[in-house]
Write a structure and sequence with these properties.
The chain has 391 residues and is of the alpha/beta class. It is built from eight helices and five strands; from the N terminus they run αααααβαβαβαββ. Among the domains are: 90 residues; 170 residues, Rossmann fold, CATH 3.40.50.300. The protein has a five-stranded parallel beta sheet with strand order 1-5-4-2-3, with helices on both faces.
Length: 391
C-alpha cells in the first residue's frame, strides 16, 4: 500500500516546511524546534509511471460507501417494484371485493323481491278471506234483522189475533155446552145406586201411537205438564234432550195442536223463521223423549246441506245435545233425500223403534211414502209471509 501522505517528485512543489513551522511557532509563542535542514537533501525520485494522479489507488472506505450505495439503490428499486406489485394487488382485491359486494347486493335484492311478492300474495289471500267473512257476516246480520222484525214485531199482532180467536172459540163452546146441558137427561138417585157395567179400557198397540185425550188421558196430562213446565219454569242448564230455551204460549199452542188435534201426524204453520220452527220441533222431540226414552229416533228432511247444518246447530242449542248424538245409529239423523229417509224409517220400525219424521218448510213437494209412518211433522210456509230462511 502507498503511504497516506502523497510524495511529489517535483521539488518546486515541495512546501517549505521549516519556514512554515517557524512562523507557526512564532504565532503560537512556542519555542522553535531544532529540526535538521532538509533543504539540501533530495527527495527520492518517483517513477515516471506514477505521474498521473488519477492512477492512485482509492481507500477502502470509499469502496465500501460505493458498494453500500449500490446496494441501497438496488433495494430502492426492489421496494419500488414491491410497491407497484402491492398497488396492483390492492386494486385487484378492491375490484374483487366490489364484484362480490355487487353480487351479494343483487342476491339480497332478488331475495327481498321474492319475499315481498310472497308477502303480497299472502296479504291478498287474507284480504279475500276477510272480504268473504265480512260478506257472510253481513248476510247473517241481515237475516237476523229480518228474523227480529218477524219474530218480535209481528208476535204481538199474532198473539192478539189468536187471543181473539180463542175468545170466540170459548164463547161458542160455552154456548154449545149450555145448549147440550139443557138437552141432557140427568140420572136419578136410583140410577146412581145401580151398579154400572165395567168399562173395558181400549187396547193399545206397540206400533200405534196416539195422543187423543179421550183415549190416553194420563199421557195427555203428562204432555200438558211438560209443556207447562217448559213455558213457566224453563231450565236453561237442564240435562240433554230437555228443552233449554224460552217457550212462549204461541209455541205451546203449535205443539198442543200437533199432539192433541192432529194425533202426532200433520202439518204446522211455519213460525216465519227456521229457528222458531226448530224451537217448536225441539219441544216435540223433548216431549217424545220424555215419554218413550231411547225408543225414539228423529229423522230430519231438508234438501240442502246449509239447511241441515242449521237444523243441527239449532237442535244442539235448544236440546243441549252434542255432535255425537247425530248419525245413522244415533238419536237424530239428517237427510237430503226422502227416499233414503223412508228406507231408514222402515228399518227403524222393523227394529221396534219409534221414528219421528220432521220435514223442513222449504220442501215444496212431500213424498207420499213419508205419510205411512205413525209420527210425522211438517212445517207449512205461510203464503202471506215469506220466510227469511228460504235461501
Amino acid at each position: 500500500m502507498t503511504s497516506d501522505v502523497p510524495q511529489f517528485s517535483n521539488p518546486e512543489l515541495t512546501p517549505d516546511i521549516p519556514q512554515e513551522k517557524a512562523s507557526l511557532e512564532e504565532k503560537e509563542g512556542l519555542e522553535p524546534l531544532n529540526l535538521p535542514d532538509i533543504q539540501g537533501e533530495k527527495t527520492p525520485a518517483i517513477d515516471s509511471s506514477d505521474k498521473d494522479v488519477s492512477a492512485i489507488d482509492e481507500s477502502p472506505q470509499a469502496v465500501d460507501l460505493e458498494q453500500t450505495a449500490q446496494k441501497l439503490t438496488q433495494e430502492v428499486e426492489e421496494l419500488k417494484q414491491q410497491k407497484q406489485g402491492l398497488i396492483a394487488e390492492i386494486e385487484a382485491l378492491e375490484a374483487s371485493k366490489a364484484k362480490k359486494l355487487s353480487e351479494k347486493t343483487e342476491t339480497v335484492e332478488q331475495t327481498l323481491e321474492k319475499m315481498i311478492i310472497e308477502g303480497l300474495k299472502e296479504l291478498q289471500q287474507k284480504k279475500q278471506t276477510l272480504e268473504l267473512s265480512v260478506e257472510q257476516l253481513e248476510r247473517r246480520r241481515d237475516r237476523i234483522r229480518e228474523e227480529m222484525k218477524t219474530t218480535f214485531a209481528g208476535i204481538s199482532q199474532d198473539l192478539a189475533i189468536r187471543v181473539q180467536g180463542f175468545k170466540d172459540y170459548l164463547v161458542g163452546s160455552l154456548q154449545d155446552l149450555a145448549a147440550a146441558a139443557e138437552q141432557l137427561d140427568l140420572p136419578t138417585q136410583q140410577s146412581w145406586e145401580e151398579s154400572a157395567e165395567p168399562m173395558t179400557p181400549p187396547s193399545t198397540s206397540g206400533s200405534t201411537v196416539q195422543f187423543a185425550p179421550q183415549e190416553f188421558a194420563e199421557q195427555t196430562r203428562k204432555i200438558q205438564q211438560i209443556l207447562e213446565q217448559y213455558r213457566k219454569n224453563p231450565d236453561y242448564y237442564g240435562p240433554p234432550w230437555q228443552l233449554r230455551r224460552t217457550f212462549e204460549p204461541i209455541h205451546a199452542e203449535r205443539v198442543q195442536k200437533w199432539f192433541f188435534s192432529q194425533g202426532g201426524r200433520g202439518t204446522i204453520k211455519s213460525m216465519g223463521s227456521r229457528l222458531q220452527n226448530i224451537l217448536v220441533a225441539s219441544a216435540v222431540i223433548s216431549v217424545l223423549n220424555e215419554l218413550h226414552g231411547d225408543r225414539t229416533r228423529f229423522l230430519i228432511l231438508a234438501n240442502t246441506p246449509e239447511r241441515l247444518g242449521e237444523w243441527r246447530r239449532g237442535l244442539q242449542d235448544c236440546l243441549g245435545i252434542s255432535r255425537g248424538d247425530f248419525g245413522p245409529e244415533r238419536g237424530v239423523v239428517l237427510f237430503e233425500s226422502p227416499d233414503a229417509l223412508v228406507q231408514k224409517a222402515e228399518r227403524l220400525a222393523e227394529d221396534e223403534f219409534l221414528p219421528l219424521v220432521i220435514i223442513d218448510e222449504a220442501e215444496e213437494q212431500i213424498s207420499l211414502s213419508l205419510l205411512q209412518f205413525p209420527l210425522w211433522l211438517a212445517f207449512a210456509p205461510d203464503p202471506q209471509q215469506m220466510s227469511s230462511y228460504l235461501y
